[in-house]
Amino acid sequence: MMQGQSLTSTSNYLWLEFNSDHESTAAGFRLIYHSFELSHCDDPGVPQFGFKTSDHGHFAGSDISFGCEQGYTLHGSATLKCMTGERRAWDNNLPSCIGKPLSSSQPYPVSVLSSFK
């Protein structure tokens, strides 16, 4: 008999499997559960010159992926995952989007100055 046993899930999923040998568990089982609002990871925002490519929520186990605008390269992890456990936090820092330097074959922008008399 398992009276008084407690199960705790740190995410929004709990898998419970009951196997009966029909000798000592023929009556089945009684399950009492308590639900509560699951704390979530704060919105990490988006990198400057970047965007979200997918957002599966901010709850434990969910993930968000990022990309960069054309001409920028993503530095850091492209995907952040909301960690499980007692404290909700993202597993990596927000990535950044760094501009690619102009190639030598491309002209640099030139400012034209005029003087008036």
Automatic annotation (TrEMBL):
The keyword Cell inner membrane does not apply. Residues 39-99 form the Sushi domain. Keywords: Disulfide bond, Repeat, Signal, Sushi. Signal peptide: none annotated. This is CUB and sushi domain-containing protein 3.
